[in-house]
Each structure stands twice: as structure tokens, then as C-alpha cells.
Amino acid sequence: MHSSRENDEHGTNPRHPQTMLNLLRIQNLALIDDLAWEPGEGFIAVTGETGTGKSVIVGALKLVLGERADRTLLRSGASQCTVEAVFRLPDPAALNKRLEESGLPPCESGELVIKRQFSATGANKQFVNCSPATLATLKTIGDDLVDLHGPHDHQSLLSRERQLDLLDAFADAAAQRRACHSAWKTWQQAASEHAALRDAEESSQQEIELLRFQVQEIEAADIDPAAETALEEQYQRATHGARLAEAAAQALGILSDAGDSLLNRLPDLQRAAREIERLDPAMTAPLQSLANAHAELEDLAATLRDYSESLDLDPAARQSLEERINTLEDLKRKYGGSLEAVVAHGAKAASRLASIENRSDLLAQLAAAEENATADLRAAATKLTAKRRAAAPKLAKAIARQLTDLGFKQSKFEISLEAHAPSAHGAEQADFLFMPNPGEPAKPLRLIGSSGEISRVMLAVKGALAAQDAVPLLVFDEIDANVGGEIATTVGRRMADLSHGRQVIAITHLPQVAVAAAHQFVVTKNVADGRTHSRLDPADGEHRVAEIARMLGGDTPSARQLATSMLGGSQ
């Protein structure tokens, strides 16, 4: 089923293109098997009898805007539901930048295509410009494109955070709000750093004592990794001193000290060698080394004598060396397995100790930074507060005027600003207060029980903020419930006013609202082959007159006459 119509005299000027929903394609959702809807520009009314499926249009939009899929809405017998929305974007530059940041393709030919699929098995798929996307991305994009409102769906208006956003939009306080948020982030970082160091200061005494012990222990050892080998050799000599002395004495005895020592017998050896050389000159070369033997043996004897004298057989000295070796081995076991590792650990501990012991200066610096950041935050919040306090009574007055037109002749509307400590969003909290009836105190909107009252307040807020509201598509799902008569006429007129420069879709039962629309579409049900199907068709000419007459109470000659009059008066 395809449903569209051209702009008529109620539409916006096509020479000034606007961002709008160009096409909504629905397959297998509730009673709709296949629908392709081109709503057109300006104010669009969707009407039809109760139960025909008008709100399925809203449900489909919610799906493409990232809301949870309700599998019970899958058309009976179908395995998969698909909803696709095509938006026209005269200037997609800002959106393209956001899409690029999300790794999604840009809009081509000024069109954004969002597609959502879900199945009976629970599988969900979503696409932006034919590329897979997350539900969070759909919701982020949708928040800038569509504003949905239903008779029981005013949480955004009841939220004090949202009320503050609306006030800031009216006050044109975006720059002050950004400055406040930036100052708050700076303050938050400064306060966090100060608190972290302050808390560390209070809990680090045990660490300080441990670091001091480690530094003192390592420094007391006076470690020289390069001397470790020589120290170990010295310890070995001290440990085996008696045996080394005995061996050295024995060697000296053989070499020089005994009567038949080598040096004492060497002259005899030399005489015998000379006799051999005289008798056999061929032996001169082999016996040549004997000439140097005497000098070398004497040098060896001197070396052994000096070595023997250098041996320290003092038990105290040996004990001192042993203690030194044990100290170094103990440090290596504690701090890394080598003397180099021990020295490195000592340096690191000393640096950490110095940073802790000297952080009183750093604490003072961080405290000053936090104090400066606090002052900057207060200054930024004060500027934002000034904007809000100047704008609050003006916005309240504008909303009150709208409410008067919507039937609240003696109502009051106020905006309360409750101060609190400066935060990312300023130094106050907004509360919209409404007094629908004289003699009653004004109450926060969240405490107003009537959905009809809240619907009209929401419409009044939208009207007062029309110039600041940049969302191009407003969807009202029967928010005109519980109103009628002249008020219904005003509601229709307000929706038409809101459609100047944007698209407004209203699901309505009120003929006074429907006749104010630029385009009207009628949802009907029919049964074919034993299955119920919903249709959405444009209402033109006599078809529209008949539909307005039905909404007035029945398609009778008098109702048609009144419908014709109402449509003529809305032209």
C-alpha cells in the first residue's frame, strides 16, 4: 500500500526546503502488511476509527529511532518486521560529521535512510544509509530529528533536567552553558587530583616507613656492583687461607728454600747443558730456553713469597668478609637477584620517598588549583544564572499566554529556580509550576494528574519555544485527548502554527484539529482472504469531507454541511 499527496494551500512553501520525513515504509507491523507513506510537508493529520491502527505509525517511528522492539507487534504469520524511514536533509553537513565519527557513510543526495528489522526469534538489525549501526546511534540521530509526544508520554516535559534545557534554549544560553560545563570539568579534575594526593598523604605513613628502611638499608651497604667479583675472590682466599699458605710454603721449598731446591740445582743443570752443546752443537737450539729458566724461576719464587705474605689468616678479617658477602646476598634476595637490581630498587625507593616527603608543596599547588577552578566555575555559573533569571519570567509569561488560548483562562504558570552548588549544568534547578484553577496553589508539573491538562501545557510550551526548537519533526499521538469545543479548535490552530518551518504529524480524533492540517490521511481496516489489513489513504475532496463528518458524529447531510464549512473556514 502506497500513500502520498502533493502540497496544497496548507503546506509549506516548496521553494524553501526543510528537513522532513519523506517516506515511511512499514512491513508486517501489527495490522499493516506493507505500507509506503509519503506524508508531505507542514501539518499532517492522521485520523480513523478507534482500533484501525493509527498509532502504529508512531510505533514504527519509535522503532527507527532506536526504541525497544516489541515482538508481540510482529504481524501474525510473518517471520520478520521491517521499518524504513527516509528523511530529506537540505543541509546534511552537521549530520554527516556525526555519521563519520560513528564510522557510518554520509547522506547521499541529501537523504538519510534509517532501517530497522526484528524477527520472532529476537534477532535485531538496524542500518543507517545501508550500513549496520547500533541502537544507541539510531537514538542519538533520532533525538535531533523527531520529537514524539503521546497522551501518557510527557516524561521529558516533567523532567526538571528537561525543563532546565527548555529554559536555556529560550534564554539563548548555549554559550554560557558550554562555558559552565567546561569550567566544571576543569574543577572536577583539579578537585580529583587534590583529593587523591590528600588521601594518599593520610594513608601513606606505613609506606613512608617502609621506603625509608629500604633506602637506608641499601645505602648502608655501599654497593659497588663492579667490585663484586673481587670481593668474592678475596672471601675465597680468606676462607682457604691456611691451606693456601701451606701450599705456597711447599712450592717455595721445592723452588728455592730447600737445600736441593730447583734454584740451588740449576747451576749444575746449566753446566751439564753446556757440556752437551760442546759435544753436540745440534742440541744448542733445544737447550736455549734453559738460559731464561733461572730468571723466570727466581721471579716465580718472589711472586710466591709475596703471595704467601699477603695471605691474611686473621679470623676477624675472614668473619668481616663473610658478613659482607651475606649482607649482599640478603639484599639480592630481597630486591632483585643482582647487585645492579638492588641499586636500581634503592634509587626508585629514594625517588618515591622524596616525592611523598616533598608533596606538601604539591598539595598546596593542587589546593590552589582547585580553589581557582572553583572560582572560575562559580563565575561561569553566575553568568548562566543571570541569563536564566532574566529569561524565566519571560518564558513563563509566553507559556501562560499560550495556555490562555488553550482554555486555561485563569491559570497561572511560573518557573521556579532553586539554587544549589555549582555543577556542570549551572547553580540552580528549574521547576515548571502550574496552577490550572484559581484559588489553588501552583504545583510542579510532575504532580499534575490530568493527562489532558499536561497535553495542553506541553503544546503551550512547544508554542512558546517554537523559535528555539530545532527539531524538524513533531509527532503528537492523541495529545488532544480530553479536550473539545473551542479549545480543540485552538489546539488545531497551534499545531498548524508549529508547522511553519517544520513537519507536524498529529494522530487525532478531533475534527477541529484535523481540518487545520495541510494534509489528512485516514486509517481504515478491511478483511481480505480471512486476514485483517490496515490501510492509510490520503483524504481529498469529498473523501475528506466524509471523514470530517464521521468524526463529527456520523456521515449525515448536516454533518457533511458542517464538515464542508469547517474545511472552508480552515482554508
Low-pLDDT sequence parts = 5-16
Query: Would you tell me which CATH topology of the domain at 1-150 and 470-485 and 505-539 applies?
Result: Rossmann fold
Number of helices: 19
Structural class: alpha/beta
The rough form would be described as: elongated
Number of E strands: 16
Spatial strand sequence of the major β-sheet: 1-3-2-5-6-7-8
CATH homologous superfamily placement of the domain at 1-150 and 470-485 and 505-539: P-loop containing nucleotide triphosphate hydrolases
User: What is the mean predicted local confidence, pLDDT?
Assistant: 82
- The CATH architecture of the domain at 1-150 and 470-485 and 505-539 comes to 3-Layer(aba) Sandwich
Main sheet record: 7 strands, mixed
Strand content: 15-25%
**Rg computed from alpha carbons, rounded to a whole number of angstroms:** 48 Å
Spatial separation of the terminal alpha carbons? 29 Å
Q: What CATH first level of the domain at 1-150 and 470-485 and 505-539 would be assigned? A: Alpha Beta
Helical fraction equals 40-55%
Describe the structure.
There is one protein chain. The protein has 571 residues and is of the alpha/beta class. Among the domains are: 1-150 and 470-485 and 505-539, P-loop containing nucleotide triphosphate hydrolases (Rossmann fold, 3-Layer(aba) Sandwich), CATH 3.40.50; 206-357, no CATH class. The chain contains 19 helices and 16 strands. It has helices spanning 56-64, 93-101, 135-145, 155-158, 160-171, 174-203, 205-221, 228-239, 241-257, 262-279, 290-310, 315-335, 339-357, 359-405, 451-464, 485-498, 511-514, 541-552, 557-570; strands at 2-4, 20-29, 32-38, 43-48, 80-88, 111-119, 124-128, 131-132, 146-149, 412-423, 426-435, 443-444, 473-477, 503-507, 519-528, 531-538. The chain has a 7-stranded mixed β-sheet with strand order 1-3-2-5-6-7-8, covered by helices on one side. Helix 6 (174-203) runs antiparallel to helix 14 and helix 18 packs across helix 19. The longest helix is centred in the last third of the chain and has 47 residues, at 359-405. The protein is elongated and about 160 Å long. The chain starts with a strand and ends with a helix. 32% of the residues are buried.
